[in-house]
Amino acid sequence: MNKIKRKEKVNGKKKECFSKDTETSLVLLSDADFEIVFELLENAKVEVFHYGKDVTGKVKIHLKGENAHLIYHYNTVNQKENKVEVSLFHEYPKTESHLYFHGYNQENHALSFNINVAISKGSSGSVATQENRIFNVKEGRAFINPNLYVDEYDVEATHSSFTGPFDQNIQFYIETRGLSKEKAEQLLLEGLLVQEGLTKEEKVSFFQTRKEG
Amino acid sequence: MLEIKQLNVETKQTHKPILKDFSLTIKEGEIHAIMGPNGAGKSTLSKVIFKNPLYHIVSGKMTFNGSDLTCLETDEVARLGLFLCMQDPMVIEGVSNSDFLREALFSKTKERVNLYTFVKEMTEATKQLSLRDEMIHQPINQGLSGGERKKNEILQLLLLKPKFLILDELDSGLDVDSLKKVCHVLNTYLKENKETSVLIITHYSRILEYIHPDYVHKMVDGTLAETGSLSLAHQIEQEGYQINEHTKEQFHE
Comparing C-alpha atoms, which of A191, A123, A128 is closest to residue A160? Predict the structure, then answer.
């Protein structure tokens, strides 16, 4: 199976179907609100690295074939009131989804992640995990609503969520090596947002440049 | 080098006294060991020296080479040349060992380290400590065992080249062979940097068989109750930490 790698900008609506037996790695960049629909067919394997810059978005995913497998990393830096809503449907047996939604909330703004995963009847042997984190630097407000609807036996489903400031013990550890509080926060932010999708330099450039429009 | 005088420290949130009239002087090139039971305040002492924000200094003095540590932030203490080898080094996801150490070196020297020289030095240090090369580019302490995390602390130490080392329960988590190896690496460092001082915090005398202290202190209930040579460590190992009130009075006199 050849692995297809793509990088594209996604502002507004996008719909895509990943055919049977394909393997895709996708880097998505959004600096305006987005609405995405993905369908994965039998044995399709997709890994998404999605970077959102101060945006609201909706992601709808249908796992529509046996062994369809999705890994979704979403990283965002938030500077106003934003919400990201995910609806993911396991519709066939042995489907797998792993969601990693990470946000960094600047100043006193609000960021919400509503992550809804449904494993429908007939999807036995499926696996669904989600790990969501939002870090507040100052007086920001963070909301994570993980929802799991499971209507089948013999499935694995887990979720973990964290909202709050960076761990004080970790900050102390970094500072004991001579790095300032600000530098420690910057390193932790990079760590939070850095995934394999973009290089460190590309990420810095994406999150630092002015928003379009 | 390090001078602590009549230091009184409490927890910031609950105001619970932790260090009580604590005094200790460590001169250049000296090795001191503090032994004490759980809850005596040994690890807190190391955090207080590094100005952990969870603790409040009520009174007393604490200086390093003349600089008043009570007025400094954690990173400023570190940049004076102090290094804290943590009892339980934590995992930092997403931050690689190499990025972290390069930033730490930059903070210390204000010069960007040449990447080639840096990687070479780091590779040599991993070899000395029998750590895997790949860990250089992996997140800090992720996937490492307790013993490997301790070795990673020493690796950071070798690159940052501090003047004052605090080894907080270095021996916990290290097997006999690893402890020997780590102590050998540390002894080599001390031989090459004779002015470096060390404060060893430990429950057991095992580590002191490899790194020989000039002084051993017994710490009980937030203060030093007794000071002696290595024989005191052996005595503690045999008799435990029961404090003799007479000894305590004698020490304070």
Answer: A128
Give the pTM: 0.81
Q: What is the mean pLDDT of residues B217-241?
A: 91
For testing the chain A interface, which of B43, B54, B90, B92 should be mutated: the one with the most A CBs within 10 Å? B92
- Measured N-to-C along each axis, helices B115-128 and B146-160 cross at an angle, to the nearest 10 degrees, of 130
pLDDT less than 50: residues of chain A: 213
We report the CATH number of the domain holding residue B78 as 3.40.50.300
- In a domain, residue A204? The reply is no
Which residue in B has a C-alpha nearest to residue A180's C-alpha?
A: B75
Instruction: Please tell me the predicted confidence (pLDDT) of residue A213.
Output: 42
If contacts are CB pairs under 8 Å, which of residues 135-164 in chain B contact chain A? 139, 156, 160
Cα→Cα distances B236→B173, B204, B208, B229, B241, Å? 21, 9, 13, 12, 6
Do residue B86 and residue A173 have CB atoms under 8 angstroms apart?
Answer: yes
Asked if pLDDT for residue B242 goes beyond 80, the answer is no
Tell me if A177 and B104 make a contact (CB, 8 A cut-off).
Answer: yes
| CB-CB under 8 Å, A183 with B107 | yes
In angstroms, the separation between the Cα of residue B247 and the nearest Cα of chain A is 36
Q: B94 vs A169: CB contact, 8 Å cut-off?
A: no
3-state helix, strand and coil shares in percent for chain A, rounded to the nearest 5: 15, 55, 30
Task: Determine, yes or no, domain membership for A26.
Answer: yes
Q: Rounded to an integer, what distance in angstroms lies between the CA atom of residue A147 and that of residue B86?
A: 39
pLDDT, one tens digit per residue, over A82-130 is 999 999 999 999 999 999 999 998 878 899 999 999 999 999 999 999 9
Going by the DSSP 8-state scheme, the letter that residue B18 receives in this structure is E
Q: How many domains does chain B have?
A: 1
Range of A158's domain? 6-166
Does residue B115 sit at the A interface (CB-CB below 8 Å)? no
